[in-house]
Amino acid sequence: MESTSHIKKWLLVSLIIAIIVSVSIWLLLFNPSGRAPLWRQGTVHGFDNFGTATYKDGILYAPSKADNKVYAVNASNGNIIWSHTVRQCDASPCIDGEVIYVGECIGPEGERQPSPKALALNRSTGEEVWSFIEPDNREWVGSPLVNGDYVYYTTYGSGVYALNKTNGNPIWHRAEVGFIVCSVAFHKGVVFVSAYDPPGQYALNATTGESVWQANYGASWDSSPVVYNGMVIQVTFNRTTEVWSTNVLNETSGNLLRRFEGIGSPSTPLVHNDKIFIPSDDWRIWAFSLANGEELWNTTRLDQGVSTLDLGSPNLSYGSPALAEGVIYHQSLSGMFCAISETDGRILWSSTLGGYGFGSPSIGDGHAFITNDSALYAYEIDSGPGDWPMFCKNSLHQRDSG
Fold first, then answer.
1. Cβ of 326: how many Cβ atoms within 10 Å?
2. CB atoms near residue 14 (< 10 Å)
């Protein structure tokens, strides 16, 4: 009897331990109240810090508006490898071989502003390979895109440039496109871009810059085009009604196929497996079927974080989502960084960061990296190694992860 009693006690203790361990694991993985970063690099920060820390081979290339530099950062521990002065960079660095491409915006407040440059830097050392100054001193705003011998840049006021990626010499230029506040996308020999002023959407021959089609579904601010399965997705803003909408266009003609009226923000949507995930101006992400427009789910409000948002439009989303193995990673403007189920929109876990959240995540080797106004952070994730090195997944700035 005594032996049986000991066995029962041992089984009870084992059961209690198993329950405690299970609950602890659940709290660690799925409790929305928090997950601690693996490391935090406070040197990389600054208000309105848009640029994604682009990931490749264990290194992050991260813009920092606080000191007008781009940093190479060890992705495993956050240590700085090198830095190079790049003034007020809004873009995610584009990596091509042993070169990274970036662009300068305005100079820091109070500084005598030299002309902004389009730059190519050595990926190992940060040394300048070449630079190009726009003749009218316009700012370089979007993330560069490399295809073949071309690197495509957007400007605030002088349209689109195609430069020779080896020496920076202009190949073609479309100035009349005007003021652009987003990046281009490339697919099948065509460059797609959307303009703020004058409003319009463009498809341009990637080799010559000649028009393939042009349309006007509204002005675009920060949100870049998405190319997916014969469609171009573009968020636009109606200046009269002040309503954001997400437009689905025919890739070949630019004709409107579907519109998600009143759903959108300056963020670029995520597209995957015939579904679209749209960060909107109500602190939520909305999921729809691209095939029939059916609403699939929307998240709870993602406005935890900074208590007072002293901004003109505090509920807008600027960061664009990333995806790895069924989990969506996203930072709201309030600085709430969260992991969301692709299936039903549940918040799996979240972490409240200091400062405003303008940046987009990148993912590599089982980690998610996020730039924020206060720092650059790294998180261990539970959804496989992932492969989302920059704000639009790949160097062609497309958003399909499969």
1. 12
2. 10
